[in-house]
Design a protein that fits this description.
By secondary structure, this protein is of the alpha+beta class. It has 2 domains: 89 residues; 227 residues, BirA Bifunctional Protein, domain 2 (2-Layer Sandwich). The protein contains 12 helices and 9 strands. Strands 1-4-5-9-8-7-6 form a 7-stranded mixed beta sheet, with helices on both faces. It has a two-stranded antiparallel sheet with strand order 2-3. A hairpin with a 2-residue loop joins β6 and β7. α1 packs parallel to α4 and α5 packs across α11. The chain is rod-shaped, with a radius of gyration of 45 Å. It starts with a helix and ends with a helix. Bound molecules: 3,4-dihydroxyphenylalanine. 3,4-dihydroxyphenylalanine binds next to β8 and β9. The site of 3,4-dihydroxyphenylalanine (DAH) has 11 residues, from β8 and β9.
Length: 338
């Protein structure tokens, strides 16, 4: 029995040398210490020993068990450490790999156009100011020489709010707000949103305008023309022609609409310009004396000019999209093209 125990110890220690996984170690443990294991078998046979032999073999059996248990524990510890190291290696992060690129946004096409318009007028000395989008009848209409019985009000399909205010139908009311607060000379542009009940291929209920206002002593209509022609050439190219047609606006007198030579056919006539060679881009005029009176300016003292243009319309001359409403559908596949 003594030899048998020594053999088991020997065998166990040798087998442990060969074990390379925790799973194999576990089955080896069962082979030796399990209910039907080698060591367990020997222990079971101890009952047949004599009184003298029993304590000696008993002690030896315990020693063998201790040696093997220790060896198993050591092997287990080593294997666990090896496994952990392998796992760490497998999960290691290569910090030298390039990172994920952040997704940069960019300006909406309408904002790109608005920025360009603004910077051209900035260069000519016009300062950008803003005003409220919720307005009163007074600022949106009355002070702009458009009393409630005035037929021009019908042209504006106004969104009225339940409290009696309205969504401004144009950026012109900011002219009044600025003149109320400042004294001439005034040289401003007003980029901003305007609202009208309107929805088709060339109209959205919310749209953008840039208003312009210049007030000083002895301002003439030819200066208005100079400013606008310079703007058109910078915006659409040096070859651009501009013409002024007489028109009516309540807040300017005389008034004009300005056309530029068609950007598609250079004035020859095509579908884009309705075969006229011209495309209307803005309204303008000399500030009406009634408007000056509304802000307590003396029309005998000062004169001025004003203009207003639709930004989506100008953006569309650059980008030529068939339906202006697609600007506001927020489809990134569309917007990413600009
Ligand atoms: N407010 C006008 C509109 O929305 C545009 C306009 C025309 C503005 C003539 C002006 C102007 O300042 O002088 O249709």
């Amino acid at each position: 029995m003594k030899e048998e125990l020594q053999k088991i110890q020997q065998e166990g220690l040798e087998a442990l040398q060969q074990v390379s996984t925790l799973k194999d170690l576990e089955s080896l443990r069962i082979d030796f210490f399990g209910r039907k294991g080698k060591l367990t078998d020997v222990m079971k046979g101890m009952g047949n020993l004599s009184q003298d032999e029993r304590p000696i073999i008993g002690k030896l059996a315990n020693d063998v068990r201790t040696v093997l248990t220790d060896a198993f524990d050591t092997t287990k510890h080593t294997l666990e450490q090896k496994q952990q190291e392998q796992q760490l290696m497998a999960e290691a992060i290569d910090v030298t790999l390039p990172g994920r690129k952040p997704a940069y946004g960019k300006a909406h096409p309408v904002m790109q156009t608005l920025d360009r318009i603004e910077s051209i007028f900035n260069q000519m000395g016009f300062q950008a100011v803003t005003g409220p989008e919720i307005e009163t009848d007074h600022y949106n209409f009355d002070a702009l020489n458009t009393p409630s019985d005035h037929p021009a009000r019908d042209l504006h399909d106004t969104f009225y709010l339940t409290d009696g205010n309205l969504l401004r139908t144009h950026t012109s009311p900011v002219q009044i707000r600025v003149m109320e607060k400042q004294t001439p000379p005034i040289r401003i542009i007003v980029p901003g949103k305007a609202y009208r009940v309107d929805y088709d291929v060339s109209h959205t209920p919310m749209f953008h305008q840039v208003e312009g206002l210049l007030v000083d002593k002895h301002v003439t209509f030819s200066e208005l023309k100079g400013v606008l022609v310079s703007f058109a050439k910078q915006m659409f190219g040096d070859q651009t022609q501009m013409r002024f047609r007489p028109h009516f606006f309540p807040f300017t007198e005389p008034s004009a609409e300005a056309d530029i030579s068609c950007t598609v056919c250079q004035g020859k006539g095509c579908r884009s310009c309705g075969h006229t060679g011209w495309i209307e881009i803005l309204g303008a005029g000399a500030v009406d004396p009634e408007v000056f009176r509304a802000v307590n300016y003396d029309p005998e003292e000062v004169t001025g000019f004003a203009f207003g243009m639709g930004v989506e319309r100008i953006a569309n001359l650059q980008f030529r999209i068939p339906d202006i409403r697609t600007f506001y559908e927020n489809d990134l596949r569309f917007l990413r093209q600009f």
